Amino acid sequence: MFFYTVPASAMPWYQYSLSFALYQIAHSSIISQVLSSALKDTSGHVFTHESYFNQVYIGARSPRHDPTFVYDGYLTALANLLNFLTQAGYMHQDAHVYMEIDGHLRNLLLIAHSRCASRIPLDLINDREWNLFLADFMQVLKP
User: Fold this and answer.
1) Which comes out higher in pLDDT, residue 92 or 10?
2) Domain coordinates of the chain in residue numbers?
């Protein structure tokens, strides 16, 4: 577990992060408590991963030689939520919300995988495609 001496909001990449998007959606009053709890939990796991790889990028941690560590970390951090969305979503009255969230997360994973496959670091602040998909994801609960 990592401990940080500065709040997440003081990290310039945070507002462009998946952890921030998950946190914002989790605090929406229009989703069920169960989904909110799952999103909050996942947000913490994703934040830990994003903090780690951003520290690697700025040289605060040793470089990783595995080109897929960013993608693999996201996949690990999202695994429980993706399983929950898939299993519970079909039986829930808000199945469309569950499936929308699942689809958006899988698209974001594709972007992370694409960056890793081409050995381009995922720059949360400057990656245009990431930011477009993330902005779309943030609108998932809007009618």
Assistant:
1) 92
2) 12-138
